[in-house]
Amino acid sequence: MNIYSKNAHGARRIEEHPLLGSTPNSGEVAITFDGGVVSAREGETLLAALLASGIRVLRTMPVTGEARGGYCLVGRCSDCLVIVDGVPNTYACTTHVCDGMIVETQHGLGHWPGAES
Fold first, then answer.
1. Is 113 within the bounds of a domain?
2. Least C-beta-crowded within 10 Å: which of 25, 67, 80, 88?
């Protein structure tokens, strides 16, 4: 069950594209984002799954705390960095979802397990 509204901020997946045709059928997997369950499709990127669920803020800036989300969407900037399974600085736009993946908003520069703050 997806706790995030599929209509939040007008979020939805494109099921039928005028040039590319229908979206291929793929299995669903469940990931968590900040403790809530998000439905994702096998083979899609983490960013695509989060955007389709209405999630727009993925990280905050170190000094100002300003919210960031996807910007370039190809792994060239750092706006979509998240913490995945305890590993900070993971690009949501180039990381594919896996069933059971645990994703957290990255605040500032992130934290490494066992590292002193």
1. no
2. 25
The CATH number for 89's domain is 3.10.20.440
pTM above 0.90, yes or no: no
**Cβ pair 30, 80 in contact under 8 A:** no
Q: Which of 87, 116, 115 is nearest to 104 (CA)?
A: 87
**1, part of any domain:** no
Domain residues for 29?
Answer: 8-107
Question: What total of structural domains would you count in the chain?
Answer: 1
What tokens were used for 26? 């793929």
What is the DSSP track for 8-37?
GGG-----EETTTEEPPP--EEEEEETTEE
Predicted local confidence at residue 24, as pLDDT: 78
In a domain, residue 81? The reply is yes
Where do the DSSP E strands lie in 34-78?
36-41, 59-60, 67-68
- 85 close to 101: Cβ distance less than 8 angstroms: yes
78: tokens are 């750092």
